[in-house]
Amino acid sequence: MISTFWFVPGLLTVGAVVLFVVTHQIDRLLSLDLEELPLIFSGGATAARSLLSTIAGSLITVVATVFSLTIVALQLASTSYTPRLLRNFTSDRGVQVVLGVYIGTFTYALLALRIIRTPESQKPTFIPVISVTLAVLLTLVCVGLLVYFIHHISGMIQSSTIVKSAHEDATSSLANLTDLENATAEEQEPRTHPEFKGLVDEEGLEIRAQKSGYVQYVDLDHILETVTQDNKAAEMVFQLPFGPGHFVAAGLPILRLWPAPEDGLGEEAEKEVRRAFFFGKERAFSQDFAFGVRQLSDIALKGVSPGVNDPTTSMQAMDRIEAIFIALGKKALPPPVQERNVNGTRILLQVGHYDFDDVVGLAFDQLRRASFTSGQVAVLERLLEVIERALAANESPVRKQALWDRAFAVGRLAPGQVTDPRDAVKLTRKAANIGVSLLEAKPGAETETAVGSDLRELVDLTVDLPGGERVRETVNSIQKG
Fold first, then answer.
1. Global pTM?
2. Contact between 216 and 179 (Cβ < 8 Å)
């Protein structure tokens, strides 16, 4: 709730009402003559009413005008970068505070205005000196916040700020993953559990989603505890087809159980299982670091689109993608199947998490296709650099194979899709260099065979291109070595 757009402004507005109650009581109880003191309001009732009316009217006008223009600017910026920029605006604490102070001051001025009594009224004249003075001071604060707001928004819509924000969200989520050095062998090299298929042949029990949305968070411990607390089965299989980050349509299964409990799971237990799934209208970072990769990839895609044509922004996004993959080299991703023991029941648990190949695909596949279509050779070169550094940071053969597949795709497509043959050879040779470096690292017999075959294909594709002999020389260097 604290991150919603209305909470902080609402809280500050309530604070303004409380502040008015306090200053009003001070004005009623204060019998000293304060008119001669510096900075204290010294005008009459008419002047006080005119001043507060001006403050209230000008503040609401400024809020309406400035925020309307800001929304327009953000909409224009979102077409160049990412539509999620508007979400960043509404969740930004600085924006919320500025809006809250403006609305709070407006409310305070209105409340102070209604207690002023002029000599023409039937009751004795009353001028809330302290309240009017504080209203003036709050207005000066609003003027300062207006300068801050303009500076803050101008920085918010810069591409460097946008990609930095997505990167920080992703790395904060990445920090929740297990360190590779502390991970089990199953987490370091995830594979399908050999018993899994044999245990799910019989008919099981399904719990289906009652609403559509993105899975933002799953409380696995609560699900396992709920299902096994009254279940005496020696072993069970849990399958969650949709992990964090996936979209679930209403009616699709969110949990499958084998074997099915004899008396069913029970209405209350099913409710508890559904409560363990948190759905939202979009993905969240709590358990989904890949969402940051998706955002950065979207920004990079916008940069290479013909309508925007901003390769610099694409490369800034790839800089941050590179940082994520280097950080990921020290982390273990959740295995596709894991074994647990809860309430005396042996459990095989399968969750539809994004694996490493999925994350690599999010980062590079669409960007590669769009870059070839738009002829952005510089972006493709940077993409190969990112893959090369990610390969150095990720030691697992499975991860290296996933990264090499994307580098090979660039080298394989370049001779046929890049109009300048020299640029094509340059890209293919760069991809070949990555493959040679991978073979020199001795990734394993299976990977070495696949990479060697791919390298020979790159040589064949460039044999008729000017400078194609350089690709052959690069590939032959590994044989000489």
1. 0.78
2. no
